Amino acid sequence: MKAIRVHQPGPPDVMKLEEIPEPVAGPGQILVEVKAIGVNPVEAYVRCGTYPVSSPLPYTPGTDAAGVVHSVGTGVAGQKRGDRVYIYGSITGAYARFALCDTARVYPLPAKVTFQQGAAVGVPYGTAWRALFSIGQAWPGQTVLVHGASGGVGIAAVQIARAAGLTVIGTAGTERGLALVKEQGADHVLNHTQSEYLKEITAITGGRGVDVIIEMLANVNLNADLGLLAGQGRVVVVGSRGPVQIDARQMMGKDSSILGMSLRNATPAGLVMIHAALGAGLAAGTLRPVINRELPLAEAPAAHELVMSAGAYGKIVLIP
Hints:
The model has no long low-confidence stretch (mean pLDDT 96). The strands form three sheets. Strands 3, 4, 5, 6, 7, 14 and 15 form a seven-stranded mixed beta sheet that branches. The chain has a six-stranded parallel beta sheet with strand order 10-9-8-11-12-13, sandwiched between helices. Helix 3 packs across helix 4 (152-163). Helices cover 29% and strands 27% of the residues. It has two domains: 2-121 and 289-319, Medium-chain alcohol dehydrogenases, catalytic domain (Quinone Oxidoreductase, Chain A, domain 1, Alpha-Beta Complex), CATH 3.90.180; 124-264, Rossmann fold (3-Layer(aba) Sandwich). A hairpin with an 8-residue loop joins strand 1 (2-6) and strand 2. The protein has helices spanning 41-48, 115-118, 122-135, 152-163, 175-183, 197-204, 218-226, 249-252, 268-284, 300-307, and strands at 2-6, 15-19, 29-38, 64-72, 84-88, 98-102, 106-108, 143-147, 167-172, 188-191, 210-215, 229-237, 257-260, 291-296, 315-319. It is α/β, with parallel strands linked by helices. It has ten helices and 15 strands.
């Protein structure tokens, strides 16, 4: 089968399209015929060798994909050949024609959801749900700021928070991104490239501040975030591309918190809870992944360039 392989850390062009043997489903495993693959920034960090968790070389990148069940191993119940599914995590990597998965990482894909949308669920929507509820402890009636809301995780956070009854403030840096965030249900949309947008957030909340901030670029925004929080407010750091200096005194008078999170830390029970919620949202239509670009699998290097560029807008997917 065709698969992207990485033999050494480095720039995007270390990813090569190669022919490798097709996996075979063993006991408790499902082999998925991949129709679309989600591209996530974390895969670029792993490829560079800068991520705390590395993959043994050589490896096939990728966590998220969608497709149909090709075959199942012994002991697998509830999935059969031809079922539409999405995956979060696999044994063999998602940037390939087939992905071998443990049963627990394969989830039903509703008929109304395209394969491209299904490939955009695992990391972005799982991260957003866990950041909002497991880590951020948000609840209906509170106000959440999604700081960088036009990318995959940002859009997911906006949709999930609105469906749960939170007031959502979303930011983006381009007119196209701002329009997208508004379309996805944000109550207030602000341009984070404009100097006055922080004052606008304070005004929107009547000076009270926001309860939860989902932060995509902590190295740029974290210190300013602390000044936007309400009492006992929480910043959940989803993304950061470098060190940051903060004034911790901004936290002391508010009993506020900075919380880091990684979806990789979710427990098996936590993943069950997350994907039960996501599956319900996909079936109900409240969760609607937005696809920006579709590229052939051979163009994985170009996809990595795009996913790390400024001006995020929806998801980039690969088509094998």
